[in-house]
Amino acid sequence: MNVQPKFNYDSLRSQKARFSVRFGNAWHVVVIAIGIMMVVLGVWMLIEHGSVGWLMLGLSGPMVMLSIWWEKDLKTAEINKNPQTIDDVMAADVLGKLPRRPTPTDIAEAITGTRAGQFLALRLGLTPNFLHNISVDNPDQTEQVWKAAIEIWQSTESPKITSAVLAAAIVKQLPQHNSLLANMKIDFHDIEETIKWYERIKALIEEHNKKPLRTGGIARDWSFGYTPLLSRFAQNISANISGQMLTTKLAAHESALEQMMKIFSSGGRQNIALIGADGAGKSTVVSAFAEMLIDGHQGVPGSLMYQQVFMLDASSLVSVASGRGELENLVTMILNEAFLSKNVILCLDNAQLFFEEGIGSVDLSNVLLPILEAGRLRMILTMDDQRFLQISQMKPQLAHALNTIAIQPSTEAETMKIMRDQLVIFEAQHKVTYMYQALAEAYRVGDRYVQDLAMPGKALKILEAAASYARGGLVTAQSVDDAIEKTLGIKISTANTGDEREKLLNLETLIHQRMINQSRAVTVVSDAIRRARTGVRNQNRPIGAFLFLGPTGVGKTELSKALADVYFGGEGSMIRLDLNEFVRPDDVARLIADGARDPGSLTAQVQKKPFSVVLLDEIEKAHPQVLTTLLQLLDEGILRDENNREISFRDTIVIATSNAGADRIREYIERGYQLEQFEQTFINELINANLFRPEFLNRFDEIVLFRPLGKEELLQVVDLILAGVNKTLAPQKIQVAVEEEGKKLLVEAGYDPRLGARPMRRVVQRAVENTVAKQMLAGTVAPGSTTIITTEQIRQILSSQTPQAPVIPPAS
């Protein structure tokens, strides 16, 4: 339509709009009330006074005409068939508020209070104050708003130029609108999508009001067979629809519905297997199919009209029937009942549970396969795609007997449409309102963090969970992030509190409270965390992937524990795998085993703790095939388990440790080199020695060398060990301290450049912990006191426990 950006204040439609806005519904109610009173009075006068009553009845005619005028013209405010100016296509609720020569500010004020304007304010945050602040009080700028409004109206295919379209136009004519919207976490495309959302909800309401309840009449209900077992063990989807379903019409689903109609109306095998990942919409397709049949949808063949769809759940049957024989008898009776009713289509939800052995499942192939092959009972089976492939390999005859239809996960655009439709239900159930930003965030985090479902199931699951984290009845993007963080224990939003920012800026200090030196290693892992929490890292890889090289006992494992404790919520958030146990090629299966079979597999542990530190100890000892499997983890942040499910490692820090070349590192240090001076040379030596392949080393963000600890550093290690002892003794209100000279004796006794800090713990245990234990048993240490371990005590203990060289008698 070639609509000019001009406003005709005196047009007939503008005058009607002003009349409608001025008098509104109240005027209509008064007219109806007067009309009813005149009719009642006219009837009474007709009975009591004869012909005078006809006069009163005649006078009620104008009231009826005014009411019809309101309902058919003023209320609907249909746009002109051949619109010339913008007032010909503008919604009446905003058109009636505009002055003769409106400014952008006047338009912003007119938007206030309208339904479309309120919708945009609530869903996006484009409030009346916001629009007023960005508007100008200059009528010369109004034509730019009109032009933008016409463009948006046409691009969104809205029936009219509503106040939502005008609000978007006011925003668009602002030169810096992109940066302004970015602060609200949206862009202009999101505004256009929200306008479409508003029009979609209006259309759904109108469709619902016009749609009749179940058609077919009494004869349809009488034709339903007697189905007591089905009523007990299955859900009658058709009975639950009653013309009130909200199904989003996706192109992929429409194609599946057409195939289902053709198969069930043909003379072939009357079964359909809907194959797709959980959450892809298999149950939605079944419900849409049931709705088409029960409501007499156009295009439904007569043989399918008013057929009922009963959904049978395998788990409910297995829980009732104790043995296989009893279960087979029960299923056989249910199938017979469905067949004899002549109007039942039986749906086996999660049908893979009927064809395999295991917890919560049972193999009923010998019962179901003959019925599927005969094809006389109409059946719909829904199956997970991966499980269907496995069953097909074990039972190829079953796969040949089924008419399969693939249900693909929805795209981002389709998922957004589905979410917008489902919000009508969610908001009514949870008494909340969702912002548009919450939908976009639900798709983003669902796609990333929910691994056991496909779209749209991922996003819908998160969206419903976010209702519990609404603030003031409003579900925002932060509500979605809170739902994920609380349920999965993952930090996904950027650091936005003062406490967390302070912790991030001081991570090195916090980690050094638990370990000594190794400043470069501490810095690289701290930098990785800061990148993750500010959103500047690669989202398709782990938070960080590091290879720690160096002698034993220098802090490689301790840094991993400290990181888990300081930032990931405790040492329980560290997943540790000793790769010296993965030295055979078939050990790859143990890495990716299903959690139900092996909860200790790497994939199973990360699935339970997706926000964690993954420590791969002694990686040089793993079989090359194991290392090849880990390449995908380091490169793409995912690892497929044995069921071909993607397990995300993108919220983990992966740390691999190795003692390879430890003697060489000590040699460089003893010759006076700094780590930075020989690091690259040392790495090249490892490659040349075939200890690590270059493509494997290249997958790490940083390769960090740990230097051996000197005696001064071990003195600090003693302080850390003693702090741990005092933490253990704290519940008994006892503390222990060691004289400074005594600490030096402990260091001398525990110093071994080959073993690092590990011998120190054994020395402290012998000299300090054993002494305190004896004092507590003797009653010489009172609660609330601090016992001092003297230098002399330590000297005596160490000298008495120093192993003596064995005396070898001379040969006879």
TrEMBL record:
Residues 268-387, 542-710 form the AAA+ ATPase domain. The keyword Chaperone applies. It comes from Candidatus Nanosynbacter sp. TM7-074. Residues 709-796 form the Clp ATPase C-terminal domain. This is AAA family ATPase. Keywords: ATP-binding, Chaperone, Membrane, Nucleotide-binding, Transmembrane, Transmembrane helix. GO terms for cellular component: cytoplasm. GO terms for molecular function: ATP binding; ATP hydrolysis activity. It holds the Pfam family ClpB_D2-small. InterPro entries: AAA+_ATPase, ATPase_AAA_core, Clp_ATPase_C, ClpA/B, ClpA/ClpB_AAA_lid, ClpA_ClpB, P-loop_NTPase. GO terms for biological process: cellular response to heat. The chain crosses the membrane at residues 26-47. It comes from the Bacteria.
